[in-house]
Design brief:
This protein is an alpha+beta fold and 185 residues long. The chain has 4 helices and 8 strands.
Length: 185
Amino acid sequence: MRRRRTAAAAVAALVAALGGCGVSTQEGPTSVALPVASAPTSAGSSSGAFVLQVYFVRDDRLVAVPRRTATATPQTALDQLVRGPRRSEVADEVRTAVAPQDLVATPAPTGGVVVAAGRDFTNVGGANQLLAVAQLVWTLTELRGVERVRFTVEGEQVEVPTDAGLTHDPVDRDDYASVAPPAGT
């Protein structure tokens, strides 16, 4: 009986939290495609050889979350970020501002990475715009050799928000100091 009350309280808290997140109501059910998490690897397996730091959001600040992967590439980092936080992380109030979408990382001719996104990238609004770009920049610059990130949508370079305003230039971690993870984390 106690477990049912605890589960009911958790569901009620989740419903209350979702009600205030800005998601509008709809008239009927809608099909949603969710990413499928891969099965955990065994300790003796060769996959999971790398630990990437992926940046999500808690209390409007970035927070690093480790992810075991078989490779440590910009594309792998983006894929891990787009998958979003795990259930246990969501229960710990970790969220993402990055809309579910296909993101492609390619090396930039002058160093760094170019992130190619679809139109969904430009649909993120308000404070979540800065947080979404910051998540991408901090996650990608965690990788060796990636210091700056440039963004394109449908092949065209786009402006992205920074602490100092909008820019077409490549961005780095310093451009998102206002949402940087708290010191010592």
